[in-house]
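go over this chain:
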Amino acid sequence: MPLVVVSSLSAVERTIEAYRPSHMVTLLSPEYMIETPPQIAAARHLRLALNDVIEVWASDSPPGEQHIASLIEFGRAWKADAPMLVHCWAGISRSMAAAYTLLCDRAGPGCEFEIAHQLRARAAHAYPNALMVKLADRALGREGRMIEAVTSIGRGEIVAEGCCVAFPLALAGR
């Protein structure tokens, strides 16, 4: 079954062993960026150096349009014949926003609320980065639906680090 698997940085090795992903997305601050794990081909590892902020002025490396464009392009090139691992530092904010973006893109317009509610049902700790969701909403032409959908699921449980969560592409209606 094709999956988008979200984890924290500390769980990357275990997650690679358990799910054997073909592709990986790393969303970390520039100073904490990691090398490509040996199990993942370098061309199948998207490394996005950005801070977990929701206001552009709050960082030298905020999420930007190019980050989201790269994520969408990378996701569209993934054949989904093996899982995709998406991780950030804690597996709560940047990685959840990226997974939400990938799932919404696969499903097409009209799926935003269903996917957001499935995200919450599977990950009580999920708190997708609002700036990334806003940028993805614009890039995918969702006219505010992604923003509204993520807002509707609320903050989520406050944790220091999220657990590993697998999202079947079936959530995206495909």
Observations:
- The beta strands are 3-8, 23-28, 45-49, 84-88, 165-168.
- The domain at 3-172 is CATH 3.90.190.10 (Protein-Tyrosine Phosphatase; Chain A).
- The chain has one domain: 3-172.
- The chain is about 35% helix and 15% strand.
